[in-house]
Specification:
The complex is a heterodimer of chains A (363) and B (553). Chain A is α+β, with helices and mostly antiparallel strands and 363 residues long. Chain A is built from 9 helices and 20 strands. In chain A, the strands form 4 sheets. Chain A has a 6-stranded mixed β-sheet with strand order 6-7-8-3-9-10, with helices on both faces. Chain A has a 5-stranded antiparallel β-sheet with strand order 13-12-11-14-20. In chain A, strand 16 (295-306) and strand 17 form a beta hairpin. By secondary structure, chain B is mainly alpha-helical. Chain B has one domain (12-37, 61-552): MetI-like (MetI-like fold, Orthogonal Bundle), CATH 1.10.3720.10. Chain B is built from 25 helices and 2 strands. A two-stranded antiparallel ribbon of chain B has the order 1-2. In chain B, strand 1 (324-327) and strand 2 (330-335) form a beta hairpin. In chain B, helix 15 crosses helix 24 (507-516). Classes of the chains: A alpha+beta (363), B mainly alpha (553). Chain A binds chain B through residues 13, 50-54, 71-79, 81-83, 85, 87-89, 98-99, 102-103, 143, 146-147, 150, and chain B through 2-3, 5-6, 9, 11, 448, 450-451, 453-462, 464-465, 469, 472-473.
């Protein structure tokens, strides 16, 4: 168990900036997730911590001591790989024992620890199997057992579940989290799957373009995204142009009929974000019953697709902006002909506002 | 995946890279540079001059050698194409019985040394050959094998497997839909072959052709044995070297530069032509082999089996001859083991030397090629790219040239510092190293780098990860590489001829000398031993290689 501090970390490949001024603090025992689209730098950051890349600038410390001078094999940070990286020529036992042998632990002790850790990952019966006799999920359990058995200071996981099928992914997700909690091991986890990140983490750190966009508890990242990128990447979001009139923002699409006071007076243009699941669709109802209590946007229905548990409604506002709503399936809505009129209604507190510039900070 | 370690922290692999570069500098670059510079030096005054090249390009002796080399090189390659392409097409597009046998025999032809087939043809069609005498007996005077046409025949039958195996691989990877589309658009089968199939496999054909051409240019044994006054650059280079013993080998070196230039120009030209011809093809629609019937079926079978039979004939003749009863150099009729008896009396040292030098060289090749392929595959540095490029050079430098380079570097001014045995092991090492590197490299490319990273992450040093994880995983590739370099090392003739002395004679040299002396029985018995060890290695390669054909190319 150990805490990890990263400050001012930069990584350049020639002129390309892979990581730019990374500052992270991972308290001891935390499950810390790096979330972002491919190419955002999350794997580069993880591999830099592991020592497979050398940073161009900045400091990585574990429990207060810098690890920059340590080569990868002396860092004591165990990694779980996306492609499992289970040694194909070694049995499950020898795979798990590999790190212990490197640490010159007595043979009897190795046997005991290997069997113990294989029970933890529920592979007790497979100790003498060869990797090719195991399924993908079982191989990844070997990868996990091999990493945690050496009791590393930090556990690094590079998209460990992404090569597994959907159902197994969800099962193993819960198991990973359980084992991590039981051992109390500081974990840095890389994924591009936001659901995975939100479900497992103590802290979600959203990255894009080699820059940390937001690091916060999952619920805060979801409800209070710090900028427009986080708002669109974590969960889905609709963005509407807003006319910014001296602190009073007006949703332009509604011709002034929908107005909203902004908490502060931002300089420059602003966009409004509303999540599809916060939108309720009203058809054939008397508008006067909700017009004053909710933000109500008149729209034209373009497509309704029924995907089972829910339905997705695609519509356009009167000035042509596209909106998507998601809701519990309703046969009245599904039956709507294309181009029919409806209202999209949202509670005022569910609206977020972001600057309409490159950074897109929250207003 | 980038696995580079920054400059300020040199690790194990950085030191290995430096070591490899140092070895390549001494054993590869230095000899070639010495050859290149000596060609521009006046042997008498020691000043810089173009006079040597002027002499080569004005004297008929050299000019004819150049013309002859190009003549047999081009026609030999053409012959190999005319044999190899139809054979590849027949075996992939038609159902042929004994297809595996054909491939296996083609591989055996590929790896057996050319000078053996050259002299086997003498026994069949030389002045006193079996076939010559047979036709003589019924009153027909057929031309002997000596001269340009004989060399071209031997080259064609010896080098066609390169074209055949490469084209076969390419034909198996052509999406059948292309051919179907051509037919659908109105092409006859012949038009379809010429307009669609052949262009699609052109990259493979031309790569095979360039290998044939480069090997033909470099080949020493065939023109030396069959030439009879028809001299090529390789035989000229060796005679020049011998006549210049004592002084700087200026003319030998100048001719060598010319040979390297021809190989280089051919390779660059082929690369240029290929540059815009890379046809990626998805294998959704695999080509199928059609069953022929009637005379077509018979003709295709006759051609396919006839070719490999003809190509294997020299080896068969050699083995057969080795069991003929002899009295000294004379065949006295009937069978006997006198030839083998003579080996034990006359040439045990040749057998011992051949195996000793080859095994030592291959041991070094095996270790070095494991390290080199790791650097080439895993390290994304300029030095790694340079090593990768340098691994192509030994293919392009004829053995005679490399040996002359070795003499000028290692025997110049330090007599007896390096004995012949050491020089021979070193030259086998550097000339056959690419065979080992190529095999281990292609094995290593299939191993995920994350496996080594996992080992390092769990506490293994870079060397520890290499030994415990990488080496066991690429072991088949290492074995195939070792076998391939062993086959080519033990059959080496041209550079050995320049470097050997009384105590370091090898089997190929002994065969060559015996053939020149008319000692065909002795030559046959030694050649049989060579062929047997080669065949045993080929069998072992089949056991270890994942793709048996590509292991040999």
């Amino acid at each position: 168990m150990a805490s990890v501090e990263i400050s001012g970390l930069r990584k350049l490949y020639g002129d390309v900036v892979a990581l730019s001024d990374i500052n992270i603090s991972v308290p001891s025992g935390t499950f810390f997730t790096l979330l972002g689209p491919s190419g955002c730098g999350k794997t580069t950051l993880l591999r830099t911590i592991a020592g497979f890349h050398q940073q161009s600038a900045g400091l990585i410390t574990i429990d207060g001591s810098s690890i920059e001078h340590l080569p990868a094999h002396q860092r004591d940070v165990a990694m779980v790989f996306q492609d499992y990286a289970v040694f194909p020529h070694l049995s499950v036992r020898d795979n798990v024992a590999f790190g212990l042998k490197q640490r010159r632990i007595p043979a009897i002790e190795i046997t005991r620890q290997v069997e113990e850790v294989l029970e933890v990952v529920e592979l007790g019966k497979f100790v003498d199997r060869m990797p090719h006799e195991l399924s993908g999920g079982q191989q990844q359990r070997v990868g996990l057992a091999r990493a945690i058995v050496v009791r590393p200071k930090v556990l690094l996981m590079d998209e460990p579940l992404s090569n597994l099928d959907a159902r197994l992914r969800v099962d193993l997700r819960a198991e990973l989290r359980r084992i991590q909690r039981d051992l109390g091991i500081t974990t840095i986890y890389v994924t591009h799957d936001q659901e995975e990140a939100l479900a497992m983490s103590d802290v979600v750190c959203v990255m894009e373009g080699g820059i940390i966009q937001q690091a916060a508890a999952p619920i805060d990242v979801y409800l209070r995204p710090s900028n427009r990128f986080v708002a669109s990447f974590v969960g889905a979001n609709n963005f509407l142009k807003v006319e910014n009139l001296k602190g009073e923002s007006v949703l332009k699409c509604c011709g002034g009929s929908v107005s909203q006071h902004l908490p502060a007076d931002p300089a420059g243009p602003v966009v409004c974000a509303l999540r599809p699941e916060d939108i309720s669709v009203k058809v054939d109802e008397d508008p006067s019953s909700f017009l004053n209590t909710k933000i109500s946007i008149p729209v034209q229905i373009k497509e309704v697709s029924f995907v089972g548990r829910e339905m997705e409604i695609f519509a356009t506002t009167d000035n042509g902006e596209a909106l998507k709503a998601v809701g519990r399936s309703d046969s009245n809505v599904i039956a709507l002909p294309i181009d029919s009129r409806a209202w999209f209604c949202v509670e005022r507190e569910n609206l977020s506002f972001f600057k309409d510039n490159e950074l897109g900070e929250r207003v | 995946m980038d696995f580079s370690i920054p400059r300020h922290r040199p690790d194990f692999w950085t030191w290995i890279t430096i070591l490899i570069l140092a070895v390549l500098c001494i054993l590869l670059i230095l000899p070639i540079l010495r050859v290149l510079t000596l060609g521009f030096v006046d042997p008498d005054t020691g000043s810089l001059t173009l006079g040597n090249f002027i002499e080569v390009f004005t004297r008929n002796y050299y000019l004819n050698g150049l013309k002859n080399t190009l003549f047999v090189g081009v026609l030999g390659t053409l012959g190999a194409c005319l044999i190899g392409i139809p054979l590849a097409f027949f075996t992939t597009r038609f159902l042929i019985r004994g297809k595996t046998l054909i491939s296996t025999l083609a591989i055996l032809v590929l790896v057996s040394p050319p000078f053996i087939s050259a002299y086997a043809w003498i026994m069949m069609m030389g002045s006193n050959g079996v076939i010559t005498n047979f036709f003589d007996g019924i009153g027909i005077n057929i031309p002997t094998i000596y001269g340009a046409h004989g060399i071209i025949l031997v080259f064609s039958l010896k080098f066609f497997p390169f074209i055949f195996l490469m084209t076969q691989t390419a034909l198996n990877a052509v999406n059948k839909s292309f051919e179907d589309a051509a037919e659908n658009l109105g092409c006859s089968p012949w038009q379809r072959f010429v307009k669609v199939t052949l262009p699609l496999v052109f990259p493979a054909v031309s790569t095979g052709a360039i290998i044939c051409f480069v090997l033909s240019i470099a080949d020493f044994g065939t023109p030396a044995i069959l030439g009879r006054g028809f001299r090529t650059l390789s035989t000229i280079a060796l005679s020049a070297y011998r006549s210049e013993l004592g002084g700087p080998p200026t003319m030998a070196v100048t001719v060598s530069i010319l040979m390297m230039a021809i190989s280089m120009i051919a390779l660059v030209a082929q690369r240029r032509i290929l540059a815009n011809r890379r046809y990626a093809s998805s294998l959704t629609n695999l080509p199928v082999a059609v069953k022929l019937s009637g005379w077509k079926n018979a003709a295709v079978h006759f051609f396919s089996h006839g070719i490999v039979f003809l190509a294997m004939l020299p080896s068969a003749v050699v083995v057969y001859t080795s069991f003929l009863k002899t009295n000294g150099p004379v065949f006295v009729g009937g069978f006997g083991l006198e030839s083998y008896d003579r080996i034990w009396r006359d040439a045990p040292d040749a057998i011992y030397n051949s195996f000793l030098f080859a095994i030592i060289a291959v041991t070094f090749i095996t270790i070095t090629s494991g390290l080199i392929s790791y650097v080439i595959v895993r390290r994304d540095t300029k030095a790694a790219a340079a090593i990768d490029f340098l691994m192509m050079v030994p293919y392009l430098v004829p053995g005679v040239v490399m040996a002359i380079g070795f003499v000028t570097v290692f025997r110049n001014g330090m007599p007896n510092f390096f004995g012949s045995a050491v020089l021979l092991v070193m030259i086998y090492f550097i000339r056959r190293l690419p065979y080992g590197v190529r095999s281990t490299t292609s094995s290593l490319r299939q191993i995920k780098p994350s496996l080594e990273e996992a080992a390092v992450n769990l506490g293994a040093t870079p060397l520890g990860a290499f030994v415990k994880i990488t080496v066991p995983l690429i072991f088949p590739g290492i074995v195939v590489g070792a076998l391939m370099s062993f086959i080519t090392a033990i059959n080496e003739l041209s550079s050995t001829l320049i470097l050997y002395d009384a105590g370091t004679i090898t089997m190929p040299v002994k065969v060559y000398v015996a053939v020149l002396d008319g000692e065909f029985g002795l030559a046959a018995a030694l050649s049989t031993i060579l062929l047997l060890s080669t065949g045993a290695c080929v069998y072992a390669v089949f056991r270890f290689a994942e793709n048996r054909n590509s292991a040999f190319l």
